[in-house]
Amino acid sequence: MNNIILQLCKIPGDSVSFVREIIGKKYLIYELVKRDFTQRFVGSWLGIFWAFVEPLVMVLVFWLVFGGVFRGKGEVDSVPYILWLLPALISWNYFSDVFSSGTGSIRAFSFLVKKVDFKLSILPIVKICSSLILHAIFLLIAVCFLFAYGSFPTFYWFQMLYYLLAMTLFLLGLTWMTSSISLFVKDVQNIVGIILRVGFYGTPVFWNIEIVPVKYQFLFKLNPLFYIVEGYRNSFVYGKGFWHEPLQTAYFWGVTFLCIAGGVFVYRKLRPHFADVV
Question: How many structural domains comprise the chain?
Fold first, then answer.
C-alpha cells in the first residue's frame, strides 16, 4: 500500500517530465504517427484516400436512412436525428479506435521494446495522434452536415476541444494499462473488443437517455463515456456548457485521474519485463 501511495505522489512530477519528453521527441512521434497512419492503407488501390472515403460513406448511409427514409419522423428534441446522432457517433468512434489500437500499441511496435533508450510510454500517444487524423475528418464532415441543415458555429462548438482533451487523457491512462498487460495476457485485446461492443449499446449514442426511467439513469451515467458523448452533443446540438454539470464533470475527472494513476503504476511495474515476452 505504501508503495502505491508513493507512486501516486510521483505522478505530478512525472507528468511534467513526460510532457517535456513528448516535446523533445516530437519529430520521432511525428514519424511514427505518419508510419502508423499510412500503414492502415498500404496495399489498397486508393491508398490514403480511404481515410476520407470510409467516414464519408458511413455518414452518407446514416443520412440516407434517417434523413431520407425517415424524413420528418427521425427527430430528437426537434433536432433531425442525423444531426443529433453524428456528434455522439464521432466521439464514440474516436474512443473505440484509440482504445482498440492503443491496447496493441506496444506489441505493434515490438521492434522498439529492446531499445533501452526508447520511451515506450509514448507509443499510445502515437496511436492517439493517428486516430486524431480520422477524428478530424469525421468532424469536418459533421460540420458540413450541420451547415447544410442551417446550423452555424457558436461558442459552444469550440467546447468540443475540451471534451476531446478530456477523452484523450482518459484514453492515455487506459491504454497505458491495457497495452502493458496485453503483452503478458493476449486475451486482453479480445476483452477490449467485447467491452467496446457492449459499451456501444450501453452508451447513449443511438438512443436518448430520457427513455430510461429516472431512477435507473444514474447507472448509465457511471459510464465515463456518457460524459463525453453527451458533451459532444451538448456542444454541437444543445449549446450547453460543461459547467452546467458539475457533479458529472467532477466524477469524470476523478475516474480519469485514477485511470492515469493506474496506467502509470501498471506500466512501471511491467516495463522491466517487456523484453522477456516480446
Answer: 1
